Amino acid sequence: MKPFRILIVDDEPAIRQMLVLGLKHEGYQVQATDNGENALRLIPGFDPHVIILDLMMPVMDGYEVCQALPGISQAAVIVLTAKNTIADIVRGLRLGANDYLVKPFHFEELLARIEVQLRLRFPDLSGKHAVGDFCLDETRHTITFRNHELNLSPTEYRLLSYLIWNAGRILSKELILNHVWGYDFTGEENIVEVYIRYLRDKLGDKEHQMIQTVRGAGYRLAPQPCD
Description:
Distance between the termini: 31 Å
Number of domains: 2
Shape: globular
CATH architecture of the largest domain: 3-Layer(aba) Sandwich
CATH class of the largest domain: Alpha Beta
Number of helices: 9
Radius of gyration: 18 Å
Oligomer: single chain
């Protein structure tokens, strides 16, 4: 069981059920409710690390919940909503949300976003994470490969740690740009290819067996050692 607790706040029963089952299967401790007022009552006792929050709900909407959270919770807030205008996104982020995902969504993407927020918000709990020949130490900000510490730039470290935490999953260039370079990045998308090449060079991954290119979809870190 992972040491992390996730609170789901959404008035759609099908969404709540899917998220509860999926996140429990991933090892998280999960509670769910259908409105913001109930969420604020649950938070002190459950003490979630992440809150997945819908915006359009009865009784108390997600915007009101965001405004009420400072002082009662250190949880990272991931807004999950059908409201998809720039104005909606900006309002949610300015009220304290840490991330924003629009419905309909892919569960794998939500998982990746949860893991990013946990690493950023609770690095001491995340600690070390081993995948195949890689060992990531979040507290020291180091990555070892086959028992040798890699000499990485800050951007290389963020990219490789993101791949490690999502080993086996296909990550699109857009996802990688958002989580490694940030939502306000205005440069060229091919920066991802450049840094993937840097990492492959440092890993001796000439055949692209460890960091795999999935044509038309993105990149994937092989979860098992590749010799």
